[in-house]
From TrEMBL:
This is Palmitoyltransferase. Its main location: membrane. Its EC number is 2.3.1.225. GO terms for cellular component: membrane.
Amino acid sequence: MAPSHVLRCCQRVLAWIPVAFITMVVCWSYYAYVVELCVFIYLTVFHFSFFMFVWSYWKTIFTRPSSPTKEFSLSKVDKEQYERAERPETQQEILKRAARELPIYTRTGSGGIRYCDRCQVIKPDRCHHCSACDMCVLKMDHHCPWVNNCVGFSNYKFFILFLAYALVYCLFIATTVLQYFIKFWTVSLPDTHAKFHVLFLFFVAAMFFISILSLFSYHLWLVGKNRSTIEAFRAPVFSNGPDKNGFSLGFRKNVTQVFGDQGRLWLLPFFTRCDDVIHTFSESQNQLLNNHSNENHLEPNGVKTGMSLADYSRV
Ligand SMILES: [Zn+2]
Ligand SMILES: [Zn+2]
């Protein structure tokens, strides 16, 4: 077995350590709350929040990231020409020709077509290559070590729900354990090993609640702005330059683009998207860009000129 292959296998195994850590903490918290503390009247709500938290965590971990469809791969002829071309300008000409029919509106910092040499695909808008997953991921937000998966187009809703239910779980534990925690300090609790669990339940729940709250608030803000974490740090570049609000369609549409347009499914970790948004090719191919009346605004190569996606919403 090649050393690089062994190293890769080791990296894959080690990448599960944060997930194993979270799983152990959650299992311990379940044991401490249900077995050691065991306050019957709290158990229904506890189990509900526990189930929703575990469900959304599971879906975030095991939902495979979406990669670009085959339409974004170069044809055999183009690929050979691209590999033979020595000058970057020639390579860009090949990419521009291949991207003519594709719904691509973002560019590299220097105005070129975004291309992944590793996956050999033209990158759709909002798509980035993840070195940890070794693949191009649609609407990549970030690679999260706590779920050992890329957070992106296919699981962003699950990730938000995972944070939300983690908050509910921690908050419920912290508030219901507080009275026993106080009794611990006032020494009125029977001196059993349950004391130890009660003490740590409160500390761990409060600590996780505080740290998750800031992350959750930040992602809610990103959802409202229709930005990924990557785009928040580096504005996407369109043909008319960088535009950090380039994908924003207004608050309501931004929210439905992640959670879907059926409110009753918002809180469930099912994949739901806005019905009137078609995602055949890329994240940016939304209803506004599919409107054929807008075709006049596109250059022959399919690149819109001087307008951001937000501008389309005002057309
Ligand atoms: Zn790639
Ligand atoms: Zn990744």
